[in-house]
Write a structure and sequence with these properties.
Elements lengths: L3 H7 L8 H10 L34 H10 L8 H5 L6 H22 L6 H20 L3 H15 L7 H20 L3 H22 L9 H23 L3 H17 L5 H24 L3 H21 L3 H26 L25
Helix pairs in contact: 1-8, 2-5, 2-6, 5-6, 6-7, 6-8, 7-8, 8-9, 9-10, 10-11, 10-12, 11-12, 12-13, 13-14
Length: 368
């Protein structure tokens, strides 16, 4: 039986992460041109025509929510979307926008599928749009429709060259979406299998994009690297859910080590990567806390807070500053609680320095 509460925790944000992309789908569809290829002219309004009554402008969705939907969500792992999405799920304007984008995207996808004798490029486009439709349907909790969209992508990509990076990424995106939906349906085993398949697919794509000796890592390499970071963490989160803590710790550490191996990142990619790193390191802290290793947990949370400070210093985007500030505050609360607990376990005078004065806009003391 489907567990909507589990879906709300882990999967609702997938569609919003594609809001901006779905808008682009509209520009790929039929234009409003006439039969001669020219845009129809707008009829001129007579000068003496009565002025139309003023209609009150519709209430716009909150700009911070728009930014979160189109920018921040696109940089989040599926297991990190819940905290981001929660403030906006009760905003009718946002829900209505996603519903409207989904309707447009579904119609566009149907038109693409109706084309006879599709070329390889047509199939790639169908699959690309199909993944985004699945994301939007998932955001609207249309679980069965979303699952059907992802499975259609997997079926269609079977006919594409399997050694192409684009094919691999399309399949990885569909499997990632399925992993979330299967978890929502209480099929944790199948969900984990899908997330593991994403790790394999992302690694394969990275190998194909691996720079030659002496060359720099490309933006395309970094794009897949961010997918792999998400896949590592999704697998680790599922292992924690199954109480396989040693394997989860290894997977989190793989994500951290891999992130530290990336070089020549653009400022935008580095900020996105450090946010992923912050969540992964924080999850390591949570794992150690679960294992009653509070000192280790506190140190991981401190390092995660340092990543927040680094992003805050390097970005000019108000939405990212706001997001890392909120993440920092949550980490600081956990750090202070840990210090309070640990203080009772130490002799007087060995408590160490308190983190009470730590601020997100402080210069980071250390960062990877």
């Amino acid at each position: 039986m489907m567990n909507l509460d589990r879906f709300a925790r882990f999967g609702l944000g997938c569609g919003l992460s594609m809001a901006a992309s779905a808008c682009l789908l509209v520009s790929c569809g039929d234009s409003k041109s006439g039969k001669d290829g020219k845009k129809p002219e707008t009829p001129a309004v007579a000068k003496d025509a009565a002025a139309a009554p003023k209609v009150p402008a519709p209430v716009e969705a909150p700009k911070p929510a728009e930014k979160a939907a189109s920018q921040v969500f696109a940089e989040r792992s599926v297991f990190e979307l819940a905290d981001l999405l929660r403030p906006y799920t009760q905003t009718p304007e946002i829900h209505e926008s996603v519903r409207f984008l989904n309707e447009i995207a579904e119609n566009y996808l149907d038109a693409l599928k109706a084309k006879k004798n599709p070329t390889e490029e047509d199939v790639v486009l169908i699959c690309r749009v199909g993944n985004k439709v699945g994301d939007l349907q998932a955001a609207l909790q249309a679980i069965e429709k979303a699952e059907s969209s992802y499975r259609d992508v997997l079926e269609r990509t079977d006919a594409l060259p399997q050694e192409k990076v684009e094919t691999i990424r399309l399949r990885s995106g569909a499997m990632r979406g399925l992993g979330v939906l299967l978890f929502a349906k209480d099929d944790s085993k199948a969900s984990l299998e899908n997330f593991r398949a994403c790790v394999d697919a992302d690694r394969k794509a990275l190998e194909l994009l691996k720079p030659a000796e002496g060359e720099q890592q490309s933006p395309a390499y970094h794009a897949v690297a961010k997918d792999l970071m998400d896949s590592y963490k999704n697998v680790a989160d599922m292992l924690v859910n199954a109480d396989e803590l040693e394997d989860a710790r290894d997977m989190y550490q793989k994500a951290v080590d891999f992130a530290l191996s990336l070089k020549n990142l653009s400022q935008q990619d580095e900020a996105a990567l450090r946010i992923k790193l912050m969540h992964t390191i924080s999850a390591l802290g949570d794992l150690e806390d679960k294992c009653d290793q509070l000192e280790k947990a506190k140190n991981y949370w401190l390092e995660a807070a340092t990543q927040c400070q680094t992003v805050y210093q390097m970005t000019t985007r108000p939405d990212l500053k706001s997001y890392v500030s909120q993440a920092f505050d949550k980490l600081k609360a956990r750090i202070l609680e840990a210090e309070k607990t640990l203080k009772g376990d130490k002799p007087e005078g060995e408590e160490g320095k308190s983190s009470d004065e730590m601020k997100v806009n402080d210069a980071p003391s250390s960062a990877a």
